[in-house]
Amino acid sequence: KAGVTQTPRYLIKTRGQQVTLSCSPISGHRSVSWYQQTPGQGLQFLFEYFSETQRNKGNFPGRFSGRQFSNSRSEMNVSTLELGDSALYLCASSREIGGELFFGEGSRLTVL
Amino acid sequence: GENVEQHPSTLSVQEGDSAVIKCTYSDSASNYFPWYKQELGKGPQLIIDIRSNVGEKKDQRIAVTLNKTAKHFSLHITETQPEDSAVYFCAASRGGNNRLAFGKGNQVVVIP
C-alpha cells in the first residue's frame, strides 16, 4: 500500500516568490492535513481538509493557503516568500477526521 | 491553545535498557495522545497512541501511560535496540480533528 506522497521533495526559492506543494494521500484517505516543521518552532499545524473543505486552520498568515481536490489530493501555496518560511512542510492523511495520521516524507523548502 | 512540553530533550541509553519520555499538556479537553518517531530525512511515523478513556496501552516493546489528573503522559521503550535511535514527538488534541499540538521532540540515542 503506497504511503503519502509529497512533491517536490526539495526546492529552493528566493524571497518574494511563491511556491506550490503537492500531496497525494493514502488511497481511501479523505482527510489531509499540513504541518510546518522548523528547528525553532517544531511541528506546527497549518490546515486540515476533508471532502474539499477546509475544516481547521492554524495560526499562520494569509500567505499560506491550501486546497483539496475531489480525488482527495491536496496542494498548499505560500505566496510572497520570506526567509522564515524555510522549513520542512509535511502532509498527513487519515481515513477520517480524527483518525490516525500518516505523514509523508515532506517537502523541504529553502528560501534565499 | 494547547501547549505540549517534552522532557528530556536528549536521552542516551545503553542497548537493552529502558527509555522513558514524559510529556505534559495544558488543555484539559485534550483526549487523544499519539507518539511519533522521526528518523533522519523521513516524516514522523505513528508508533502508538492513547485516548483518554484508558490509562495505559502496550504494543510489544512500547507502552504509553496517561494521567489525566496530572495532565501528563509518557512513552516507555523496553529492551532498546540501535534502531530505536530517532527523534520522538508526543502530541495532543481534542479529538474530532487532525489539529495536533506537538512537543518539541526528544532525541533518543541507543548506545550499542
Characterization of this structure:
The complex is a heterodimer of chains A (112) and B (112). By secondary structure, chain A is mainly beta. Helices cover 0% and strands 54% of the residues of chain A. In chain A, strands 2, 4, 5, 6, 9, 10 and 11 form a 7-stranded mixed β-sheet that branches. Chain A has a 4-stranded antiparallel β-sheet with strand order 1-3-8-7, with no helix packed on it. The N and C termini of chain A lie far apart (37 Å). The model of chain A has no long low-confidence stretch (mean pLDDT 95). Chain B is an all-beta fold. In chain B, the strands form 2 sheets. In chain B, strands 2, 4, 5, 9, 10 and 11 form a 6-stranded mixed β-sheet that branches. Chain B is globular and about 40 Å long. Chains A and B meet through strand 4, strand 5, strand 9 and strand 10 of A and strand 4, strand 5 and strand 10 of B.
What's a concise summary of this model?
The complex is a heterodimer of chains A (112) and B (112). With 112 residues, chain A is mainly beta.
